[in-house]
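During the no-cost extension, the postdoctoral fellow (Dr. R.K.) reprocessed legacy sequence entries with the updated structure-token encoder. One reprocessed record is reproduced below for audit purposes.
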Amino acid sequence: MSLHTTPPRPCAVTETASRGRRHEEPHPGHRSEFQRDRDRIIHCGAFRRLEYKTQVFVNHVGDLYRTRLTHTLEVGQIARTSAQALGLNIDLVEAIALAHDLGHTPFGHAGQDALAGRMEGLGGFEHNIQSLRVVDDLEKRYATFDGLNLTFETREGLLKRCTVERAQQLGPVAERFVHGGQPTLEAQLVNVCDGIAYNSHDVDDGLRSGLISVPECRETTLLGPLFAEVETAYPNLDERRTIYEVVRRMINVQVEDLIRESAARIDAAAPADVEAVRRHPGPLIGFSEDMARRHQDLKDFLFQRLYRHFRVARMVRKSHAVVQGLFDALLDEPQLMPDQPRDAAHRGEARHGLPGRARAVADYIAGMTDRFAIEEYRRLFRPEELT
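Re-encoded structure tokens follow.
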């Protein structure tokens, strides 16, 4: 199947049909509204910090492993290609992809789990909601508003999951979690492409690290046929190039299936506009049943063989200790934080009590890079370290 530019679909998001921004601004002129979203995301501090946040391997472990930033760029590349082939809004897809992990904690999912545990009963913590919080409130770059003032459609695309109670607090951007319905096709697409990127680069990094092996990967229903295909076509290829060929084909076969299946679903449903997409009973973007099984098989394999490997488990344990230790100390004594987060903690407590103070502490920790979190932990708990 050749990937090509498909004319825009009537159910794709358009700038003229956008629900706009929370704070009115003049049109950006030479850019579209969604291009301005993308540019604001790229230039914000939270985006730069992704360079030093864990994907699977902590940032300082090796220079070639993926970070949250390289993961984000890979999601964007896969999603742009898919959007072009499906006739969706490429600029919106790119904006959602580039912003989708802005709220992630240091140490990847280990950091999120630790912070979510400490925030239980204090308002909770979930990194997708935190990404929305970053672009709505925490970035302080503009004279007349907090946050990045992104379009409704970009903001909506950041929310993958949300409790009804939390959704009611977030307002219209989370209304589908209260009343039911789907997000835009562009948001659905980024969600699936996130999984494609995640699995493929974790296979690559896992093999590079030696925590998983080629024979183990051959056992999976997705990778087994691809290794056989590459080894048949190139019988004398060295292992490193073989892995690159397999990972490249692994991405391609999933993208081709995603485009083919999604196009068929959209054609069958024939939504007249974005609102018809929102009212549809289920997602219109997704894999075929066979590819969905193979994709899930690979996820299960990575969970058992890579994410639960004893060396990863050791780093997870240390990550929990750092995040939990920082949270407990800073919640107990906000004066240990620098001026800005300390003042935010005092303001939050004045408005909402202990949950308000906890939210400011969570914001401070979630914004840390791996390296900064480790340094802060040392400064707080090791007497020999300078404060």
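Residues 315-381 form one domain. The chain is about 65% helix and 0% strand. The remaining legacy entries will be reprocessed before the final report is submitted.
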